[in-house]
Every structure is written in structure tokens, then in C-alpha cells.
Write a structure and sequence with these properties.
Keywords: Membrane, Transmembrane, Transmembrane helix
Strand content: under 5%
Number of helices: 3
Oligomer: single chain
InterPro entries: Cbb3-typ_cyt_oxidase_comp
Organism: Marinomonas gallaica
Number of domains: 1
Largest sheet: none
Protein name: Cbb3-type cytochrome oxidase component FixQ
Transmembrane segments: 6-26
Structural class: mainly alpha
Length: 63
């Protein structure tokens, strides 16, 4: 088995992997998970905003 045979085998394997990833990405069952993952960067902002609003009231109660 020489290098050209390995290259000839690697091409269809890579193509099959590409097709598999393509269908996995666009399957309907994954939409909810991908939508949640897309909104993860914004989740921290909501938590920080609620903490900023809560901090002054906590400080007033402790004094």
C-alpha cells in the first residue's frame, strides 16, 4: 500500500464525514440545543444586570 492508495481512501472517508456533519447540524432534533447554545453569550449579561440591581438593596439592608 503506497501513499496514493491512502490518499484515495482518505478522500471518500472525509466526504462521508462531511456529509454526516452536515446532516447532524441541520437535523430538526438539534435545533433547540443549538438555539440555547447561540444565546449563551447573552445569559451572563442578564445575570450581571440582575446582580447590579440587587447589590444596592443588599447594602442598604446591612447598614
Amino acid at each position: 500500500m503506497d501513499i496514493n492508495t491512502l490518499r484515495a481512501l482518505a478522500t471518500p472517508i472525509a466526504f462521508i464525514a462531511f456529509i454526516g456533519i452536515f446532516f447532524w447540524t441541520f437535523s430538526r432534533g438539534r435545533k433547540k440545543g443549538f438555539d440555547e447554545a447561540a444565546n449563551l453569550p447573552f445569559a451572563d449579561e442578564e445575570d450581571e444586570a440582575s446582580n447590579v440591581q440587587r447589590e444596592p438593596s443588599v447594602e442598604k439592608n446591612t447598614k
